[in-house]
Design a protein that fits this description.
The structure holds three protein chains of three kinds. By secondary structure, chain A is mainly alpha-helical. Chain A has 20 helices and two strands. Classes of the chains: A mainly alpha, B mainly alpha, C alpha+beta. Chains A and B meet through helix 6 and helix 14 of A and helix 1 of B.
Chain lengths: ~525, ~550, ~160
């Protein structure tokens, strides 16, 4: 800095290459005003335009929104067959649901009867209202499906193994929150479909009474009653329930989901990225010249944040070869998945209107009154035993799913589809066994009834303990124990059990959706239903 | 590496998404039905109004009724302040009715889904809308949403009044329902009379006849002279009844009067009064077509079609229905349909209740006229016949004839009154008087008088003796009963082809003379022969035998 | 910082900016079209909050005038903020929404007075006093048969325009 005769040098720094050489402050002011737009852009892109390796890395690393991604991504993680993009797709569906949901909040009124009228207004009068509402309904359903598929993918690629057990647990929590979001949203239109579906759901929540009544302890510990009261805010679905469900649906559960999702994605980072087989590097084809950009040299560690780096987090000791820059390769993949999910939601919204039946009428029950589709498998089991179908078996299933990473401590096959001892064979056999047993059991119960049809005086406790749900669970458990022994592997047993569970879930849901009609009787087709 | 594949996927899905968004935008902005209709309305307007007309959603909002009716987005001519395009079915002005749509909206009278902006949805012809619009030709049924016209007489009485109105040349000065009358404005004199279309609603001077007569007698009144005929007291009453029925809803009161002449209330309740054998009809006009079973109803799945088919053949439409085929003509069915649609009492804020509804629901005023003829027609005719000769319906025990002379000569007024008041418990005849029934004593007396009239006024022949005086061998009576009576009246007197003889109300009100005379002389026109004279298949019963029969019948009577 | 080239790389230093190759046209096009569709979606979304129809009674309405209307005494239809006058020149309607901050003015002997900040107006809407900046507007009014007049609260006409009848 050359000497300056003006006394203003004590104020502020000189700009790069320019000295306070006597130009007046006004001139400087004008100059800064002229350059302000470019300076604004440059201040937003602090690392400059992402045209070099370094700036690309810095772009990802220093952005609040993008730095959940690692700067480098292993090529194995980018393969479609590794993840099928299901996790990103589920997050994309959530984002679509979130945005359309906020828009609907401009017009929806959470009070009985008025809620229904506001839904009619949204459909007929609000600009783009019909389209937005349809998108919201479909995106919600798409999200549930994608979350379930994502869970299946993670399981079958054994991506839950150490050190990722806790992320699996968080994923299970995310599943519960997703189902909760869908369920709480189901009531909001306040039509016959909504009202009676939630009445069913609340009565399923009350199902522990079946057990406490049979044991005679309801007056001491009325778990079912407490659960229903907490859910509904009253003894039946009404204005208290609606406001409660609205609060859960627009504030509590979305916040929980966002927090859990952030932890979930952060853990992916800290657990060293997506799972891949130990020999992934060997199995990857060489980089083709068409791939661009790639790292031109072995990148150094470009961040210095790692505190005490020990053990497996962050990815200490893993080579940087076979990594490509997250920007743009990972981002293209994510953008493609996001856009395809959005496209699917838009297409569904244009093709089919979201349902809206008559105004909710507590005096006229829907027959059949069906819970939302993802609970219909449960409702089928509830038709045999309220407690087992409503609480017992779901708890067993969730507990079983949660325990999987802690029981399967093997390492063979991590990151491979159907990896582990037994592989495709055990999955195929379990599918066969799972489908066969659930179909046969259901066919038997539909044709011949169950216990009470044969011995009308049977005690409820007997039916609670012995019903198609418990029998099926027992069969699946026995089969998976057999698989453990047969293949000498806990993983094989886990695959057997999970596959059976999937088969059972799918078949029971299909039965609940399509084959059950008024009074929960069996019909081959909805056109056979009596009455209307 | 899949980057290229991802780029292609991204490109294709983005373009597809753009295309879908574009088509959604087109659908939203250009393909909406109401916009198209409003644009055609604007084209049909005169140029100076066209400038001020904006294509936008229009609605009639009545917060107290929770109504936001967007019918006027397509039916622009009916929106407040807009002019109609005459001759156009959709865009014309609303027909001149007493209630301004701007005050009460559209759906209150017409039904349908007011919040919708597409025609099928707005007319309620979609699934999951339980209250479709009232059919076009029967719009006046919508009056029933709020109104309950009171004291509607039987068809015969109403028609009598109408015939008198037409024959007395009233239409030369008075308009009625769009016909007749001349009216010079500005008191120019000459022929003038008010429009009587709503005379029943606004009220009229009860001394109108006297005033007409005195005007007619004034020497100076040129046109008046001779204009008014002389009418008897009964004729004047008939005209009064007719005028009271004019409420600006042509056809509706006639339909109600028809309903009151066919005896429907024998079996059906309306507004809490009627029989229990059939469903309550108080809100039949609000039937949800989605919940009706159309398996046996040909044609469209509309409520109108269902009701019409039901009137033609109830047993076909509702398997197992007790309702007999009434043999109605198509015009009668259409009129009854109009009345059925008007039975649609809605929940209204009390500020909106019209006077007639307040009187009906708060003060118990009758919807039907309380004279014997109307009461009989409304409540008795379906079972006992309009002429009192009884009715036979397939699959049901026959209903007794009560208008025959031989019955009336032995049935006292009090016997008839007790029967009407207390009914026949356990049998089809309900109790119509207090306690539990709707009729007052004076109404019952009116019915009794009407029944006497059916038998050409046959009086009760009188019975000077005590109610029970017969002393005879009931055991012999039992064997006689088994031989002669049990086939029709049942082995235990419980009835069958013939009425129940063991009914307590019957036994406690019938006298021995009544029983004696019935057995002796029979009932003309029914299966009950007179046993005092023999028939081809049985010999005559001696008077002592008849007394033994009566004594046996009396053994069923339980002492109070 | 080493400059050891990576196998498969093209030997440049990491610090050099790379030229944009033509083959990335696909990528740029893909990104551009995804932004375009999202922008289109955003534009559509922005239309939602602006209500297409207001849940209040229509601005155009009809009312039957009472037979005896003295000149200078306004008729205010219930629930509406207009005042209808009839004088020798005809019938006209003045809006009773104060032009200052929107309170409803009350009719008095000489015209109108606003209870909020004391603005005063004459019967024809001109301002006598007060913080009101503009006179009360006259509203479009048409008279049809049977002294039924149709007023459009959303349409202002020039002061002085009266309707026959």
């Amino acid at each position: 800095m050359t000497g300056s005769s003006s006394g203003q040098s004590a104020m502020g720094r000189p700009s790069e290459g320019r000295c306070p050489d006597g130009r007046s402050a006004l001139a400087r002011f004008g100059e800064n005003l002229r350059r302000a737009p470019r300076e604004l852009r440059d201040s937003m892109l602090r690392s400059g335009s992402p045209a070099t390796d370094r700036s690309r890395s810095a772009f990802v690393f220093s952005s609040l929104f993008l730095h959940v991604h690692s700067v480098r991504v292993h090529r194995w993680s980018l393969r479609w067959s590794t993840t099928m993009g299901l996790g990103i797709a589920a997050a994309a569906a959530f984002l679509v649901t979130l945005i359309t949901g906020v828009l609907l909040m401009f017009y929806y009124k959470p009070y009985p009867d008025v809620a229904y009228l506001s839904m009619k207004d949204i459909h007929f009068v609000v600009p783009t209202g019909r389209f937005i509402r349809n998108i919201h309904r479909w995106a919600g359903n798409v999200m549930v499906v994608l979350v379930l598929l994502h869970m299946a993918r993670v399981f079958y690629t054994a991506a839950y193994r150490r050190p990722r057990e806790f992320n699996w647990v968080i994923g299970m929590l995310l599943l519960v929150v997703t189902l909760g979001l869908s369920f709480t949203g189901y009531l909001l239109p306040w039509d016959q479909l909504a009202y009676w579906a939630i009445t069913i759901g609340a009565n399923i929540a009350q199902s522990p009474r079946e057990l406490t009544d049979a044991l005679g302890i309801t007056h001491l510990f009325d778990l079912g009653g407490i659960q229903k009261l907490l859910l509904l805010g009253s003894d039946q679905v009404g204005e208290e329930s609606l406001i409660r469900f609205y609060l859960l649906h627009v504030m509590i559960l979305p916040l929980a989901l966002v927090v859990l999702l952030s932890v979930h994605m952060w853990r992916v980072r800290k657990d060293g990225g997506l799972t891949r087989p130990a020999d992934a590097d060997l199995r990857l084809p060489p980089i083709t010249p068409a791939t661009y950009p790639v790292f031109t040299e072995a990148p150094q560690r470009t961040y210095h944040l790692a505190a005490v780096v020990k053990g497996r987090t962050p990815a200490v000791g893993n080579g940087p070869e076979n990594c490509v820059p997250a920007m743009p390769h990972l981002f293209y993949a994510e953008a493609a998945v996001f856009m395809m999910t959005v496209l699917a939601c838009l297409a569904l919204a244009l093709l089919r209107d979201a349902p809206l039946k008559e105004l909710a009428n507590p005096a006229v029950p829907e027959n059949p009154a069906k819970a939302p589709w993802y609970f219909l498998g449960l409702q089928e089991l509830v038709s045999y035993s309220a407690f087992m179908g409503g609480m017992g078996i779901p708890l067993v299933v969730i507990l079983g799913l949660l325990l999987i990473p802690y029981l399967d401590r093997e390492i063979a096959g991590t990151g491979e589809w159907f990896g582990g001892p037994g592989g495709r064979r055990v999955v195929a056999r379990s599918a066969f066994f799972g489908l066969g047993s659930v179909i046969l059991l259901e066919a038997f119960a539909i044709r011949f009834g169950w216990i009470r049809q044969w011995w009308p005086e049977s005690p409820q406790l007997l039916i609670t303990l012995i019903n198609p749900g418990t029998v099926l669970t027992l069969l699946y458990a026995i089969f998976s124990l057999w698989a453990i022994r047969r293949f000498d592997s806990v993983r094989a047993g886990a695959m057997a059990l999970f596959t059976c569970f999937l088969a059972g879930f799918v078949v029971l849901t299909v039965i609940g959706v399509h084959f059950r009609g008024p009074n929960w009787d069996f019909f081959w087709s909805p056109s056979d239903w009596p009455g209307h | 590496m899949h980057s290229r594949a991802n780029k292609i996927l991204l490109l294709v899905s983005s373009l597809a998404a753009l295309a879908l968004l574009g088509s959604a935008a087109v659908r939203e902005n250009w393909l909406q039905e109401w916009k198209r209709i409003q644009r055609s309305y604007a084209k049909a307007l005169p140029p100076e109004s066209r400038r001020d007309f904006r294509v936008q959603l229009r609605q009639i909002v009545v917060p107290r009724l929770r109504v936001s009716d967007r019918c006027v987005s397509c039916h622009v001519g009916m929106a407040p302040g807009e002019q109609g395009i005459s001759g156009d079915r959709v865009l014309s002005k609303h027909p001149n009715v007493h209630h301004d749509p701007a005050d009460i909206g559209c759906t209150v009278c017409h039904g349908g889904q007011g919040r919708a902006t597409e025609s099928a949805a707005a007319h309620g012809d979609v699934s999951f809308w339980p209250e479709p619009m009232i059919p076009a030709g029967q719009a006046y049924a919508g009056c029933g949403t709020c109104h309950t016209h009171l004291a509607v007489p039987s068809m015969a009485r109403l028609e009598q009044g109408r015939a008198l109105f037409e024959r007395s040349d009233c239409l030369s000065c008075h308009r009625l329902d769009g016909r007749g009358g001349t009216m010079r404005t500005g008191a120019a004199g000459g022929m003038e009379g008010p429009d009587l279309s709503r005379a029943g609603a606004v009220g009229f001077d009860e001394k109108w006849y006297g005033k007409h007569v005195s005007r007619s007698g004034e020497p100076a009144a040129a046109v008046w002279r001779g204009a008014v005929r002389s009418l008897s007291q009964d004729d004047q009453q008939a005209l009064d009844i007719f005028l009271s029925s004019r409420v600006g809803a042509p056809g509706l009161i006639e339909a109600k009067a028809l309903f009151h002449s066919l005896g429907c209330r024998c079996c059906h309740k309306v507004g809490g009064i009627g029989g229990d054998d059939g469903p309550d009809l108080t809100r039949v006009g609000q039937l949800d077509p989605g919940r009706l079973v159309f398996d046996h109803v040909p044609g469209e799945r509309t409520v109108q079609n269902y009701l019409a088919e039901h009137f033609r053949a109830p047993g076909k439409v509702v398997p197992g229905s007790l309702m007999p085929s009434m043999g109605l003509s198509e015009t009668q069915i259409e009129a009854l349909n109009l009345y059925m649609f008007s039975l649609r009492r809605s929940e209204l804020p009390e500020a909106f209740w019209p006077k007639d509804r307040i009187r009906a629901e708060r003060f118990g005023a009758r919807e039907f006229a309380s004279d014997g003829a109307t009461l009989y027609g409304a409540f008795c005719a379906a079972c006992h016949g309009a002429d009192g000769r009884g009715m036979r319906y397939a699959g049901m025990p026959p209903f007794p004839a009560i208008g025959g002379r031989d019955f009336l000569s032995i049935a006292s007024d009090s016997f008839l009154a007790v029967t009407i008041r207390s009914g026949r418990p356990g049998r089809r005849m309900p109790a119509w008087g207090s306690p539990g029934g709707p009729f007052s004593e004076s109404e019952i007396d009116g019915i009794v008088r009407h029944i006497r009239g059916l038998g050409e006024g046959t009086p009760f022949a009188g019975d000077s003796g005590p109610r029970r005086w017969i002393v005879a061998d009931a055991i012999r009576g039992e064997s006689l009963y088994k031989a002669n009576c049990s086939l029709c009246h049942g082995p235990g007197g419980e009835g069958g082809e013939g009425p129940a003889l063991n009914n307590q109300v019957f036994l406690s009100s019938a006298s021995d003379l009544y029983l004696l005379e019935t057995i002796r002389g029979g009932r003309g026109g029914t299966s009950m022969t007179g046993f005092a004279s023999g028939t081809n298949v049985s010999s005559a019963l001696a008077p002592s035998e008849i007394e033994q029969l009566v004594a046996f019948i009396r053994t069923w009577e339980v002492k109070q | 910082m080493t400059t050891r080239p990576l196998a498969g790389g093209n030997g440049r230093s990491r610090l050099d900016p790379e030229p944009i190759p033509r083959r990335d046209f696909l990528g740029r096009l893909a990104v551009f079209s995804s932004f375009a569709s999202l922008a289109f979606a955003l534009a559509g979304i922005m239309r939602l909050p602006k209500a297409a129809v207001l849940p209040s009674p229509s601005k155009k309405f009809s009312v039957k005038l009472p037979e005896a209307m003295q000149p200078g005494v306004p008729f205010v239809p219930p629930g509406r903020s207009v005042a209808i006058f009839r004088d020798e020149g005809g019938v006209y309607a003045v809006s009773t929404v104060c032009t200052h901050l929107g309170c409803i003015v009350k009719a008095d002997a000489g015209g109108f007075k606003c209870p909020c900040h004391g603005s005063e107006f004459r019967r024809d809407g001109t301002v006598v006093r007060g913080p009101a900046p503009k006179p009360l507007p006259w509203l479009a009014l048409a008279v049809s048969a049977g002294s039924v007049c149709t007023i459009d609260e959303g349409s202002v006409v020039e002061s002085g325009r009266r309707a026959r009848g």
